Amino acid sequence: MNMTALACSTGSTTEPQPPPDRGEWPGSRRAVASARPSLAAIVTSLHARTGKTLLARVLADYFVLAGSRPLVFDTDATEHALHGWFPDDTVVTDLGEVRDQMALFDTLAARAPEARVVDVSHHVYRKFFRLIADCHFIAEARTRQVEPVIFYIADRNPDAYEEGRILRERFEECALVLVENEFIGPVKDITRRSAGYRAFETHDLCVTLPTLDRAVMDLIEESNVSLSELMSKPLSRSDDTRSAGLTFEQRAEVRGWLVQVFRALHQVIRAVERRAPAPI
Fold first, then answer.
1. Torsion of CA 261, 266, 272, 278, to 10 degrees
2. Rounded CA gap, 252 and 31, in Å?
């Protein structure tokens, strides 16, 4: 299903409604100066093919546009797709290696202004959160003004929402953002009737990833196009050079989609920051 098309005219420069003022974005110089905590965004899902790595990529580009250079971690030691989009800034971590475990959590909890983004592969989902519990990562990170936040993508099966409920209760001191990816279709009736799904009916930290044309989605997933660069460059039909294989109309569509997602992320991250405990 396509998004609503943006109005474009030949020879003109067309800009979608801009995201929030970059000076207010977490990780920006102004945000750092206001002593907000650094964010450690943990992007995860119980199952594969939920849009998890795409969300991690968008979060990293969100922080890049804020003027920060996020610390990015890819826990899929086999495919490491996130590393492919951020080859100079991503550390591929093998959680089967104790050395990698220590390096990951030490870096995530380090006192530093940069935001952090972790793409938690479904293959290491349970191991990752067991390690978080064992090393008391959340409490340790907060002593260093790092605020962890879990971005949990639920697919359309009842066990995904039930796992999300368990994760929220297990780490009740950590903000959990429920992410609904419209691209994977509507929620099943059996899922809506499940206890796990109903447990999130009043959950207020939520983000929706709107649909995007399948062909356009394939192009941005298969190419090395920088989403932050696509957003920062003026959009003009006079410069229609099919940048990264995208036509002018496709670039406009991606930019409109990104504006929606960035706004949703901005709102939920600011809510997390407001709830974060005062620095120790």
1. 160
2. 29
Res. 247: pLDDT tops 50: yes
User: In terms of DSSP bridges, do strands 206-209 and 90-92 run parallel, antiparallel, or are they unpaired?
Assistant: unpaired
Question: Both tokens of residue 74?
Answer: 């890819």
| pLDDT one-digit tens code per residue, 165-183 | 999 999 999 999 999 999 9
Calpha distance 125→46 (Å, rounded):
7
What would the two tokens of residue 214 be?
A: 């399948």
Residue 94 has pLDDT above 80, yes or no: yes
Q: Taking the CA atoms of 65, 275, 196 and 134 in sequence, report the sign of the dihedral they define.
A: positive
Q: What percent of the chain has pLDDT over 70?
A: 84
Residues in contact with 235: Cβ distance below 8 Å, sequence separation at least 6, in sequence order: 13, 14, 15, 248, 251, 252, 255
> Which residue ranges form the domains of the chain, and what is each CATH number?
22-275 (3.40.50)
Please say if the pLDDT value at position 6 is more than 90. Answer: no
Residue 132: left if φ>0, alpha if ψ -120 to 50, beta else—which one?
Answer: alpha
Residue 125 contacts by C-beta under 8 Å, 6 or more apart in sequence?
Answer: 44, 45, 46
Is 208:263 a contact under the CB 8 Å cutoff? Answer: no
- Structure-model confidence comparison of residues 2 and 90, the more confident one: 90
Confidence band for 234, pLDDT divided at 50, 70 and 90: confident
Cα distance between the two ends of the chain: 48
- The residue type found at 211 is T
State which H helix or E strand residue 177 sits in. Answer: strand 175-181
Give helix then strand counts, H and E, for the chain.
Answer: 12, 7
